[in-house]
Each structure stands twice: as structure tokens, then as C-alpha cells.
Design brief:
120 residues; alpha+beta; 44% helix
Length: 120
């Protein structure tokens, strides 16, 4: 007698797999907005550093230029006074480092240290 073995997913495997996928999706939904905000911050820092009108501008003018861009992009993680501004020859170097704590469940949180600089 030729018996073929059935292959498939058990109910326990389905529930366990679904739970893992749901946890990964929830983690992603909490982390992705902060990663997107970080990408916007990096983009704005580079745009301000490469603006030819700001090459010889005062530090206050550079911070105001960043603040205008941050307002448009709804950036709240980095304020203009958090940016370290230096000059390397005729180019501006803007850098920032900040920590973001993302609450997950109860007392458990995910902490991410973001760092960005225009000289990299």
C-alpha cells in the first residue's frame, strides 16, 4: 500500500506564526516613524550645509534655516539649538546626536541612539 505523507500547518503552528508576525508588525509600527523622522533630519542637515547662501552666515542664521525646514517637515526630535555647527574651510559641518525612547509594553522600552553629521 502506497501511503503519502500529508504536509501542512497545524493550528498550533499557525497561532505561533501569527503571533510572531503580529509582534514584528507592532514593533515596526512603533519604530518606523522615528526612523523616517531621522531620515528627514539628515536630509535637512545636508540641505542646510550645502546651501551656498549660508556658507558665510552666522550660526543663528544657520539655525533659523534648519528651523524653517524642520517646521515644514514636522520634526520635533531635534531643535535648532541641539545642532552642533562647525566650519571646515568654506563648508559648514552640521552634526547632531539624540536618543529616542520608544515605549513598547508596560515598563519595556526600546532605546535608539541616533547620530547624524554632514561630513560623512
Amino acid at each position: 500500500m502506497n501511503r503519502t505523507r500529508q504536509a501542512g500547518l497545524t493550528l498550533t503552528g499557525l497561532i505561533l506564526g501569527g503571533t510572531v508576525i503580529a509582534l514584528i508588525a507592532i514593533l515596526g509600527m512603533k519604530v518606523v516613524p522615528d526612523v523616517i523622522e531621522y531620515a528627514k533630519i539628515v536630509s535637512n542637515l545636508k540641505a542646510v550645509a550645502q546651501d551656498p547662501a549660508l556658507r558665510q552666515a552666522s550660526l543663528a542664521d544657520v539655525r533659523k534655516a534648519y528651523e524653517r525646514r524642520a517646521t515644514v517637515d514636522h520634526i520635533s526630535a531635534v531643535a535648532p539649538q541641539d545642532i552642533e555647527i562647525t566650519r571646515s574651510g568654506n563648508t559648514l559641518v552640521l552634526s547632531v546626536a539624540y536618543r529616542k525612547e520608544i515605549p513598547l509594553v508596560g515598563p519595556v522600552a526600546l532605546v535608539i541612539d541616533f547620530e547624524a553629521s554632514t561630513d560623512q
